[in-house]
Design goal:
This protein is α+β, with helices and mostly antiparallel strands and 418 residues long. The chain has helices at residues 2-24, 31-45, 53-60, 66-73, 79-94, 156-159, 162-167, 179-192, 204-207, 210-218, 242-247, 318-326, 329-342, 352-384, 391-395, and strands spanning 98-108, 118-122, 127-141, 144-153, 197-202, 222-227, 232-235, 238-241, 255-262, 265-276, 289-297, 305-313, 401-402. The chain contains 15 helices and 13 strands.
Length: 418
Amino acid sequence: MLGVVVIAEAREWASELESLFARTAGRFGRADLRWRMRDYVRGLLAPVDRKNGWQLAERVGHKTPDGFQRLLNSSRWDADALRDDVRTYVAQQLGPGGVLILDDTGFIKKGTTSAGVGRQYTGTSGKIDNCQIGVFAAYATPLGRALVDRELYLPKAWTKDRDRCRAAKIPDDREFATKGELARAIVLRCLAAGLPADWVTADEAYGQDWSFRRMLEESGVGYVVAVPKSQQIKSLAGMWRIDELIHDAPEEAWQRLSCGDGAKGPRVYDWAAAKLPRNLVFDPDPPTHHRWVLARRSLSEPGELAYYLAYAPVEAGVADLARVAGSRWAIEECFQAAKNECGLDEYEVRRYPGWYRHITLAMLAHAFLAALAAQALARETAETTPPAQSHSAWQRSGASWTLSCLHLAPSPIPSDTH
């Protein structure tokens, strides 16, 4: 009986993969490119020790990796168009009302010729290293999470050297952009494409950027973003550091809430939040959103606090903010899964187009795995649990403390077949 179930699941997985290939086939103008793309993605999904060109080629029955190298480096196809297909597929599989998460990850490299490589800090190694940095977006809902967009960060040492850029096939119109600017472009692109995200979240590297937060507010999307303890809160009466404001919160202001499940069950912290007064110059009347300050306190280490700024629909409560703040870990899980299971970081390309092509194909493979997991979870939930009550119905009941003294200033895998 178990064997029958396994065979049925394998057929279902193969059918889903074929469906995904069919919906992306139009991005590859020639039949040989389509077959090469299919083989490459199958190789990325296969249990290969190291997903470099030779091992992927051997896995799918190619004599040499030359075909894969042409696919990544010299063939004519649009990686951005394929990225759009990945984003649409993820949205359809994971459903609406999710959180768009921004973060970057490093790709440790040797040498100086890979596009964008340089000595820079990366959380991948936790130090300054010779690496490339990619800025990514993930989309997360209760059904799962997957990567939906990407940009390669180019340090100024690269963009100021146009000969070096041309050697790496970096377009002449690609100028220097900070990681924050790349993140803003990604968010605007996702929202313009109709990704059904209700919220955006990011760590303090992005959250402390006023222009990033302002862009989200102008786009009408809620956010909960981490900020450093030194973050300044502006008001007509002066400025306060966010840690000073939280320090003055009475003990009864803290609520014990879960911000989502982790590997060991619910991740529970103490949370304190305060609504900030409206900006009377820019905000509509009646308001559609409120701005908040938010803090998270560890139960085991009470002195360990994290700080956030939020912009949330008027009906949202503290538990909603905690849930969105806690969803940021999902992109770390995406990075880990995409690197461990789909070869996201095991590419051998050095030129700019090759990076985007490999990364996008690895995102396609990861999206397929996310879709399978989402479908399995949806079936399991339908079979074992009754319809759930709306998540926000009980979340809005928590009390919050207020800062009435503040008035914001107007700045604010099947086998190969050929």
